[in-house]
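Q: How do we represent a protein-ligand complex in a form that can be generated token by token?
A: Start from the inputs.
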Amino acid sequence: MYKTEHSAGGVLFKEKSVLLILNFSSKWTFPKGLVEEGESAQDTAIREVYEETGIKGRVIGYLGKIQYWYVWEGIKIKKTVDYFLMEYVEGEIKPSFEVKDAAFFPLDKAKELLTYKGDKQVFQKAILARGV
Ligand code: ATP
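Then emit the structure tokens for the protein with adenosine-5'-triphosphate bound:
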């Protein structure tokens, strides 16, 4: 028996840097969150990027989905996350209570900081899609 969850997030570029958050597992990763009822995954990505980091972005493409398993209070959860390629529109970094930190990093540095396998794959796709 397991539960499923669906989230969406953004790989948001500002010139030659990319936006990451530090989660409560102390891992640098992309901002994301649960898709609410009646909300498109694309709108979730825009909303969650803004809520978690204070940055407003626009979606310029779809990068595909990743999946992972985790256990919460003894229940196995299969999580699917849709990622969108995004670009900076406006705003200053203002990390929310949902994250430990948020920052823009140069692409090489971001590549070093990302640890989740799915994140590395999505980041590679984003770099190819963006042509940087
Ligand atoms: P959301 O941000 O979608 O609201 P959440 O904060 O409730 O989700 P997750 O970020 O999915 O939860 O974290 C749940 C567990 O999964 C944690 O143990 C976390 O370390 C792990 N996790 C988070 N992102 C990934 C990933 N990309 N790949 C593998 N494991 C991950």
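Residues 7, 23, 25, 27, 29, 32-34, 68, 70, 79, 116, 118-119 surround adenosine-5'-triphosphate (CB under 6 Å). The first strand starts at residue 3 and ends at 14.
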